[in-house]
Amino acid sequence: MKPKIEMVKEEILSSNWYVLKKMTFKYQKRDGSWETQAREAYDRGNGAVILLYNREKQTVTLTRQFRMPTYMNGNETGILIEACAGLLDKDTPEDCIRRETEEETGYRVTNVQKVGEAYMSPGSVTEILYFFVAEYSSHMHTGRGGGVEKEQEEIEVLELPFEQALNMVENGEIRDAKTIMLLQYAQLQGLFRPVSKPQHILIAGPYRSNTGDDKALIEANMRLMNETALRVYEMGHMPVLGEWYALPLMETAGSRQLGDEIFERMFHPSAVRLLSFCDAVLRVGGPSRGADEMVRTAEAKGKMVYGDLDEIPVLA
């Protein structure tokens, strides 16, 4: 049932950093009577938080930094271990958490999965926090991280075994609510269970790039991708190349040479269409705008991107 509220007065008590307001209002109780109440509410905007996990290594990536409010309330060092988080500002939750992840941890993740949202301190703070998880791997690391110096951030990045992180919750070494919630989510949802289902993996590599349309070099590129596909198949998954679909389709459509109108109309677009039916992309070989496009498209669709065969779980 929606409560009946009549606002009486709104006062700004502080706007030094964010906004602290005193709200005086009339509230109709269940018995129908009205009561005047006053509450203070701190508005710092909404935020997002993410748990980065690596299924193969059985690890999570967290941060460690000084938090003054905890120092004021019993935390002798003021140091807190947390999942990466930040305020939305004017971004969407997804864009915010991608930005914060790279700034704080140095990982550039795109395939983020929203798992919930919550008011973290509804008695006094207006903030809604959006919760995400994302799988990370070594090829996503940009070499940066540690926070933004102009925002006075000094952040240490921690990579911990998942079981150790759970134990740290139990023994009180991890006391941050949002981090505890995400670690428990990972435990309940079995995020660290090995992949038991074969994946449909698109092999993305150079076809014409840097070949000058030399047939021998193009054949070498195809041989590399086909050999990679065989390795993926032997690992228990189902590989596919965009070329396996595009080349016979283009020939049937009447393409006569590389780069003609039919080639341009069908080669890359068919691979993009194929990607909708795949679970992941494996990027192989040298520079290729087409292969990089497949990676970007896969990331935008929330699919896993592998940078090396060693990152793919072995099922067979």
UniProtKB/TrEMBL annotation:
<dbReference type="InterPro" id="IPR015797">
    <property type="entry name" value="NUDIX_hydrolase-like_dom_sf"/>
</dbReference>
<comment type="subunit">
    <text>Homodimer.</text>
</comment>
<feature type="binding site">
    <location>
        <position position="104"/>
    </location>
    <ligand>
        <name>Mg(2+) 2</name>
    </ligand>
</feature>
<feature type="binding site">
    <location>
        <position position="100"/>
    </location>
    <ligand>
        <name>Mg(2+) 2</name>
    </ligand>
</feature>
<dbReference type="InterPro" id="IPR000086">
    <property type="entry name" value="NUDIX_hydrolase_dom"/>
</dbReference>
<dbReference type="InterPro" id="IPR004385">
    <property type="entry name" value="NDP_pyrophosphatase"/>
</dbReference>
<feature type="binding site">
    <location>
        <position position="153"/>
    </location>
    <ligand>
        <name>Mg(2+) 1</name>
    </ligand>
</feature>
<feature type="domain" description="Nudix hydrolase">
    <location>
        <begin position="43"/>
        <end position="182"/>
    </location>
</feature>
<feature type="short sequence motif" description="Nudix box">
    <location>
        <begin position="86"/>
        <end position="107"/>
    </location>
</feature>
<feature type="binding site">
    <location>
        <position position="85"/>
    </location>
    <ligand>
        <name>Mg(2+) 1</name>
    </ligand>
</feature>
<keyword id="KW-0479">Metal-binding</keyword>
<dbReference type="GO" id="GO:0019693">
    <property type="term" value="P:ribose phosphate metabolic process"/>
</dbReference>
<keyword id="KW-0378">Hydrolase</keyword>
<dbReference type="GO" id="GO:0016818">
    <property type="term" value="F:hydrolase activity, acting on acid anhydrides, in phosphorus-containing anhydrides"/>
</dbReference>
<comment type="similarity">
    <text>Belongs to the Nudix hydrolase family. NudK subfamily.</text>
</comment>
<protein>
    <recommendedName>
        <fullName>GDP-mannose pyrophosphatase</fullName>
    </recommendedName>
</protein>
<dbReference type="GO" id="GO:0006753">
    <property type="term" value="P:nucleoside phosphate metabolic process"/>
</dbReference>
<dbReference type="GO" id="GO:0046872">
    <property type="term" value="F:metal ion binding"/>
</dbReference>
<dbReference type="Pfam" id="PF00293">
    <property type="entry name" value="NUDIX"/>
</dbReference>
<dbReference type="GO" id="GO:0005829">
    <property type="term" value="C:cytosol"/>
</dbReference>
<keyword id="KW-0460">Magnesium</keyword>
